[in-house]
Amino acid sequence: MIRLLLIITCLINIQGCAVNIAHDDNFYNKDRENQLIPSIWKMTGRITIKHDDEALNARIKWYQEGDKFICIISGSFGRTLATIEGTGTEITTIKGRENIADIERIINMDVLISDLRYWLLGQPNPASPYNYLILDQNSHEFIQNKWQIQINEFQTRNSYTLPKNIQLTNSQFNLRLFIDNWQL
Rounded CA gap, 31 and 12, in Å? Predict the structure, then answer.
């Protein structure tokens, strides 16, 4: 149960707090950010979450259709731990196997997850301020809403350059995503 709450809390806290960080529009105009990603896509992979001295490994599936998303987190042997559904700005439903009341209490806080769908694609959310630290062919790193996002490896799918290895870090959490498959 603690691990499930850790995953849920981490996904909720990804939204961070708004920060006014200046950004350079010249960086945002690079070809990578201008590529149009289809409005319907699916990503599957593995996630590692570290918080204090605790770590958790899980499988993650993310389905995006326009502003709507479904995130399925599975544990060992493919057992679904949580299913989170929402729109571009809010979580609308969360289903889990254990202690749904605790999860819903956490979720019902003012949660904005609008950045995550862009970060999974290796891009900053264009609606929020951001600052690039590194932008080259081999790595991509930026700061947005008190999170540092590093894309350490890319893969090509259907002529799109998409992340294969993403690290998200803030003052409380360290997440690593290893993306096994993209469907566009």
Answer: 30
Query: d(Cα 169, Cα 46) in Å, to the nearest integer?
Result: 16
Partners of 59 in the β-ladder: 46, 74
Name residues whose C-beta falls within 8 Å of residue 44's C-beta, 6 or more positions apart in sequence. 59, 60, 61, 62, 179, 180, 181
Angle at 3 (CA atoms; ends 170, 99), nearest 5 degrees: 120
Is 83 within 8 Å of 92 (Cβ atoms)?
no
Non-local (6+) Cβ contacts of 88 within 8 A are 67, 69, 113, 114, 117
Query: Each residue of 106-116: pLDDT tens digit?
Result: 444 333 577 88
Domain ranges of the chain: 2-183
| Parallel/antiparallel/unpaired status of strands 173-183 and 80-86 | unpaired
pTM for the predicted model, two decimal places: 0.76
Under DSSP, is residue 39 helix (H, G, I), strand (E, B) or coil? Answer: coil
- In angstroms, rounded to a whole number, what is the distance separating the alpha carbons of residues 70 and 65? 9
What pLDDT shows up at residue 97?
A: 60
From the options 3.40.50.2300, 2.60.40.10, 3.90.1570.10, 2.50.20.10, give the CATH code of 2-183: 2.50.20.10
